[in-house]
Amino acid sequence: MEAALAESHVMSALKQKRATVVGEIIAIERRIGELRVALVNLDGAMRLFAGDDINPEAVIPKLPRPAAASSADLPHGSLTRAVLGVLRVAVG
Q1: Mean pLDDT, 10 residues at a time, the chain of 92 residues
Q2: What is the four-CA torsion angle of 32, 26, 28, 38, rounded to 10 degrees?
Q3: How close are the terminal C-alpha atoms of the chain, in Å?
Q4: How would you class 54 by CB atoms within 10 Å of its CB: exposed for 0-12, middle for 13-18, buried for 19 or more?
Q5: Do 46 and 56 contact (CB within 8 A), yes or no?
Q6: pTM above the 0.90 mark?
Q7: In the chain, which residue ranges form alpha helices assigned H by DSSP?
Q8: DSSP 65
Q9: How far apart (Å, rounded) are the C-alpha atoms in residues 87 and 71?
């Protein structure tokens, strides 16, 4: 009986996590669609101003920087303690 109960909790947690992951995928796919529309509009505007002399695809992509960890992600003072700990053991 206990094993079946434990498995039902595990299955419930796994289903919940799967639903969250699928929801994130759907949201990201929607965002990709929005970005593709924006890209088409930008390419059109570039051609409008520069004519056919421009190749929008020749513009080098600029990757976004990774999001920095917010202070809410770290307990207060933990970053300072980590830095000071490294400095204590550093040679020279």
Answers
A1: 74 95 98 97 94 91 81 79 90 76
A2: 30
A3: 62
A4: middle
A5: yes
A6: no
A7: 2-50, 78-89
A8: P
A9: 22
